[in-house]
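[User] At your convenience, examine this fold.
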Amino acid sequence: MTETAVASLADLPARTREHFDGIMRTPFDERSLDMLQMPMQPSDIVVATFPKSGTTWMQQICHGLRAYGDMDFEEIGRVAPWIERGHMFGIDATQPQDHEPRVFKTHLEYANVNKGARYIHIVRDPKDVLVSFYRFLSMALIDPDAISIDTFADVWLFADQLAERADPDAPFGPNLYNYWRHLIDWWRARDVAPVLTLAYEQMHRNLPLHVARVAEFMGIASYASRVDLATLQATFEFMAAHRDQFSDHFPGTDLLLVKVVDGEVGGHASRIDAALAARIDAAWQHYVTPELGFESYGELVEALTLE
C-alpha cells in the first residue's frame, strides 16, 4: 500500500457525511485499474458479491473445496485475493496460487470486472446488507455516533448511481459499488457468462446443499467427505473460532476489519425503523422491478428456488 493511502487512513474514522461521501467516491488508483486488465483463465472462479453479501463465506467455501480443507493461511484474502483492491492490504492478485482452480473476489459489476472466468454471485436482502455494511464500517472507517444508519444509507443506497458516470474517461471508483446496479447487472450476466447465482438466505438454510452446488460449478468432484469438510469449515461457529483468518489488516496501521460477526438472516428487523425499511422497498420498486420484473427481494429469491 502506498504512503499516500496509509496517510489517508490516519484521517479515519469519518465523522461527517461529506468525509464519508468522499471516501465512497475515491477514484481507483493506477494499480486498481491495472488489475482490471489481468487476464483470466476459463477455470478461474471469481466470487462476485456486493459488500457484506457472503463474500468471505464463499471465499472460504471455494478454498476449502479446492484445498481439501487446508487452513494454512494468514488471511483468506491471501489465498483468494481481491482483484481490484487486494494491493491495499499488501496482496498481489497476479501471483501464482497454490491450489486449483484459482479463486478471486470482486465487488464490481460484471460490466466492469475481468472477463473470461466463472463467477459465483450471491444475493442478499438489501436491508440486511445495509445493517451489516454499516456495522462493518463502524468498526474502523466511520464514527457511528456522528454518522447515523440513515445518513449511511443516503450515501450508498439511495444515491442515484444507476446513471452513467458524468465523465466516462474518469477512473473507476468505489461509487460503482451500488447495490441496485450490482444486482441488476449480475442477474443479466447469467445470460452471457457462466454465473452461479445463490441466495444468502438459502445458503444459511441449507449449507451442505449449496456447498455441493459450488463444488459442481467449480468442476470439483463432490466426494461426500470433501463436501462435508468444506461445509464444516464454512459454518459460522468454525469461522468465528478462526476470526483472525477472516479479517483484513491494513499494513502499516492498527486498522482491522473484522468480517465474521454473526451471519444472521433478518437481523435488520430490530435495527432499522419502519420508515427506512419502506424507503428500501420503494428503491427496489424504482430500480429493480422495471428492469428484472421482481416486485420484491423475496420474489427474486423464490425464482432462484425454482431453478
